[in-house]
Amino acid sequence: MVRVALGIGSNLDRRRHVQAAVDSLRARFGDVRLSPVYRSRARGFDGPDFYNLAALIDTDLPVDELQRELRAIEDNEGRTRNGARLASRTLDIDILLYGDAVLRVDGYNVPRDEILTCAFVLRPLADLMPAAVHPESGNTLAEEWRRFTTSEDDSGLRREDWSPA
Known about the structure:
By secondary structure, the chain is α+β, with helices and mostly antiparallel strands. The chain has one domain: 7,8-Dihydro-6-hydroxymethylpterin-pyrophosphokinase HPPK (Alpha-Beta Plaits), CATH 3.30.70. 28% of the residues lie in helices and 24% in strands. It contains four helices and eight strands; from the N terminus they run E-H-E-E-E-H-E-E-E-H-H-E. It has helices at 14-29, 63-76, 119-128, 141-147; strands at 2-10, 33-34, 38-40, 50-59, 92-98, 103-105, 108-110, 158-159. Helix 3 (119-128) runs antiparallel to helix 4. The protein is globular, with a radius of gyration of 15 Å. The two termini are 25 Å apart.
């Protein structure tokens, strides 16, 4: 079994799609641990604010099969992939960490590059697993969050009162 950290985001009908993602992950993988939900501005395009959170699952699926299953969950929530890369979306589920693996597969990086560059990815992940060590930097996620300066963050990141049931 591998412990996998996922990033979940939505900026269209956010609560419904985030809840559906969590429900689907629980149905498929059992126990799912969740970070708090954060709201952030759309990055790189004009659009509604996003809800972002991190989730932990345990799986025996290889990363490519897991990726396919996550894409199916996104597709079930109406995710379209024929538009601009930076655009509003019903649901986005990314593999952030896959154990302590460092993988470069078909243009997909694990650990996800955005962990160290985007507050809306790092903050929920650091909340969920502060003592986990980033496989490339060698720092804990809590240390990475402390090093992340507000000047690097233009997302308007703020914690929400809502969380998936």
